[in-house]
Each structure stands twice: as C-alpha cells, then as structure tokens.
Amino acid sequence: MTDPGAAANPPRSGSGCGIAFGIGLILAGGLFLWVNLTDTPLALLLLDALPLAAVWWPLLLVAWGAWKVITRLRTGRAGLGFGEVFLMLLFILGGTVFTLAQRAIESQGLEPRLTEVRRLIEQQSGSFPVHAFVTEESVSLAAEGEVEILISLPAGNIRVEAASAADTAAPVTPVPESDGQEVPGAAGIEGRLQLVKRVWATDGQAAAARAAAVRLRTGPLDPATRQFPVRVEDSGTSEVALELLATLPPGVRISAFTDEGWVRVDGPFARVEARTDDGPVEVRGAGGPVALTVRNGTAWASGIAGALSIEAERAPVEVDGVAGSLAVDAEGAPVWISGAESSVTVRGRNAPVAVEDSFGPIEVVTRISPIRLDRIGGSAVLRSEFGDVVATSIEGPLEIRTDSADLEVRRARSGVDVQAAGGSLVLDEVAGALTVASGRGDVRASRLFGPATFTGDAGGITVRGFADALSVLSGDAEVDVATDALGGEVGLVTERGDVRLALPSAGSFSLAAETGGGDVDSEFTLERREADGRSRWEGRAGAGAERVTISTEGGDITVRAHPPAGGDR
Fold first, then answer.
1. DSSP character for 18?
2. Is the predicted pLDDT of residue 482 greater than 70, yes or no?
3. Buried-exposed string 35-44: b where 16+ CB fall within 10 A, e elsewhere
4. What mean pLDDT is predicted for residues 128-156?
5. Are 492 and 549 in contact (CB under 8 A)?
6. Least confident range of 189-193, 327-331, 348-352
7. Average pLDDT of the residues of the chain
8. Which of 7, 142, 150, 569 could form a disulfide with 185 if both were Cys (CB 3.0 to 4.6 A apart)?
C-alpha cells in the first residue's frame, strides 16, 4: 500500500551548501595530491592557476545553476539555504578579486615581475638549474660622418661609456656587417661593443648552445637618418640575461632602448636618448640635449650640459645639475631637482615635487602632490590642486595657485601673489608687494616690507609687522593686525567679521572707524558721529601723517596702542 505522505512530501534534494563544500574538498585534495606526486611547488601552481581562475571562474557558477535547475526538474524541489547563499556570495567575491588582480597585473606590465618570482621559486625548490655560465661577444664598430648609434635590446642592461683619447686616435678599419657588407671607416668614428651573456643551465654544453642562439648584430648605416643600429637577435627559446657594454667616441649621438633592464650612459655625448619600460635610467656628463623615458624604474641625470626632458611613470626622478632647460612629466613617484641653471617645468600627477638650489624661472603644476621650493634664484609659478606648498628663499616673483592645500612662504625677496580656495596660509618675511586671495582658510602674515593686500571669505586674517601700505577686505573673516611702525595707508574692511588693530603708541596717523551695528573700543581718543544709521569714530595721533580706516557692517572694532619697537609686547 502506498504511503499517502510519500506523494505529498517528495524526497529533499539535499543541501547545496554541503555539496559545494564536498566539491571544494575534492578539488583541494586533488591539488595537494598533485603537489606530492609531481614534487611541484604549490606556489608555482597558484601562479599558473591565477590567469585561468581570473577568466574561467564564472563557469562554476554556470555549473552550479545548471545543477540547481536539474535538481528542481527531477525532484520537484531545490531549496536555497542561508549557508548556500553565503557560500555563493563568497565565491563571487573571490572570483572578482582574481579577475581584478589579473587585470591589474596586465595593465601595469607586471608579467616580467611574475616571471622573476617564478624563477626564484624554481631555484629555491631545486627544479631550476643553479649553474650560471658567462660568455662574451665583442664587435668593433666604425662609421663615417655624423652618426647616431641606435642600441636596442628586447631585455637586458645597456651601459654606454665614452672612449678615451687614446682609443679614438687609433686608425679605423672597415668592419664586416651582419649582411656581409662593409661600412667604411672614418677617423674619430669608431667604438667597441661587448655583449655579456649569462646563461643558467645544467652543463657547459647546454649553456654554450643557448648562448650561441643569441647574437650581436650591427649596421648597416642608414644614409638618410644617419642611424647606425646595434641590436640582438635571439633564435633560441630560453631566456639569457644580457648586458651590453658600448665604448663610443664622445661626440656621437646615443639612443638606447630596452624593454626590461637598466640603461646607463656616462660621457660627453652630443645627444642622449634613453628609454626603458621596466628598469632605471642613469645619464651623467652628457654634452648635449638628453631625453629620458622611464617606467617602473628611476630616472637619474647629473651634470647635463644641454636641455633635459624626462617622462616618468611610477619612476622617481632625480636631477643634479643641468645647464639647459628642464622639463619633467611625472606620475606616481617623487621628483627631486637641484642645480638647474635655466628654466624648469614640472607636470606632476600624484608626484611630490622638490626643487632647490636652482635659478629659474620655475613652473610646477601638480595634482594631489605637495610642492617644495628652497633657494631659488629666479621667479616661480606654482599650481597645486590638492597638495601642500612650501616655498623658502625665493629671489624672484612668486605666484601660487592652490585649490585645497596648506601654504607656507618664507623669505621671499620679490613680490608674492597667492590665490587659495582653502587651506591655511603662512607668509613670513616678504620683501616685495604681497597679494593674497584666500577662501575658507586662516591667513597668518608677518614681517611684510612691501605693500600688502588681503582678501578672504572666512577664517581669519592675522598680520604681525608691516612697513608699507596694508589693505584687508573680508567677508566673515576675523581680522587681527598689529605693527610697530606705520609706513603707508591702512584700510581694513569686513562685512560681519570683528576687527582688532594694534597701532604704535608714538605713531603719527589719523584714524577713522565706522560700523553698522557693532561696538568700537579704542585706547586712542576718538570722537563719535552718527550718519545714515552708521556710527563713525575719528581721531588723530601725532601729526596724523598716515591714514588708517576701519569699516565693518556688523562686527566689533577694537583699537589698541602697541608699544614702539624695542618695547615690551
């Protein structure tokens, strides 16, 4: 007899979370079993599995969904428990992380780094041959007329040195080229190339075979561009570490490119161009213009007699001594410049910039990056969106534009023009004319020796010590001014902010204070007058040589007597 409850309650399909957990145990067990049987490091399997997991992990979601549908069709039920939902969300999160990690690796060009990690793991595990064999290949180079030596390596290090006078005085002979032709020699245009090959292999015979597959090729000379190519041809399939040493006459032009490795050029060459996608670049003592392009390395230049241009991405820039103009475009790493004798232009994105001991003119434009200037002999123009600015000992005119950054200027010998939407401003010892337009930040200025003009919306404006005319115009900003001596007209105007002014007790000035609804408190004798609903106080000290006016719509006015210079403050 059939059980009536059997038709009403079909058998449950089971917990999907439990089945998924069981599948996970099977995969993990198979992975560790493979590691034990093949003696393969687990880290290597994970490195190999990352690209596959980043692309194909959604197939497991498809299989999971298909299994749920089939279960529903066969049994009539396919429940979805809390544990299964949590496991599914965790799985989707993990798969998304794999995909984002793989895309980041591809977009940032980090595949060579993973290759180095894999090689290191193989070496530590014993499966990678630890014997290194070094072979060398040397070629003489000769060409006539003005020549540009174009050196390119797919991967490897390039080092270029200037030949000595004894080397360049030797007679030049024709050199057979890779295509069987000869390049005619000419006095003064000759050099030597030395290619060092480092091979990892189990024995010398295997190393020699792999090294022989990598050959150094030169020429022919292009008569139109006057470029003499130097390159490496690799007919093998295994990696060989390369380092090319080029000894060339000082007067030639140099172009050196490598995808992975470092480039070093040392000598008074007529022109230098260097580029690397994954490694540092170093140029010293170049006699002409220099152009550097660096990614994921360091750009370092010293003693450059001509103009210098640098494009750096995620690469710190260091420049020590350049006679010509300097232009830097940097992203993601700091820029440090010293000893620039001509103009300096820096464009930075998330790249802190520091320039010191230079003679300008200097222009720095950054985004999300601080700027620091110290001991600048010329003018400077600074623009920063979200980065603090510090400028010290500036001889020429200084112009600063910031959106939301703190600013500090000390010992400015010429005029200073500042526009800041937000952030605090500190200015000390400004010899020339000073113009400050602030937004919401506080402004503190001291030891001003030229005429000064301040405008601000909110916050506070504080001035301590000025020797020339002073003008302050603010909205809600509190104004606090004190000085030991007056050397020009003073005008303080606010809408709703309070005004506090300390004047020399033995000074010579005429004072007029006017307010719409605030109070006036003065230590100097003032006479009060009423006109058009506004209160006005007027008075005079000494001969009344300088004019002082204070005006506010709704703020209070406080005037105090300041002790003369040398008295107690």
1. H
2. yes
3. eeeeeebeeb
4. 76
5. yes
6. 189-193
7. 80
8. 142
Segment (H or E) for 500:
strand 499-504
Q: Which of 414, 545, 543 is nearest to 486 (CA)?
A: 545
| Residue 124 identity | Q
pLDDT at 381 over 70: yes
In angstroms, the CA 549 to CA 531 distance is: 16
Cis-peptide into 10, omega within 30 deg: no
| 132-142 vs 190-200, strand pairing mode | antiparallel
Q: What is the pLDDT at residue 507?
A: 80
pTM over 0.85, yes/no: no
Buried b (16+ CB within 10 A) or exposed e, 546-564: bebbbbbbebebbbeebee
Helices (H) and strands (E) in the chain — how many of each? 8, 43
**How is 318-348 classified by DSSP, letter by letter?**
EEEEESS-EEEEEESS-EEEEEE-S-EEEEE
- Give CA angle at 341 (339, 346), nearest 5°: 80
Q: What's the rounded Cα separation, in Å, for the pair 243 and 300?
A: 19
Do strands 509-515 and 534-541 pair parallel, antiparallel, or not at all (unpaired)? antiparallel
d(CA 471, CA 451): 8
CB 488 within 8 A of CB 471: no
Question: Closest Cα to residue 345, out of 294, 382, 315?
Answer: 382
- In one letter, which amino acid is 461? I
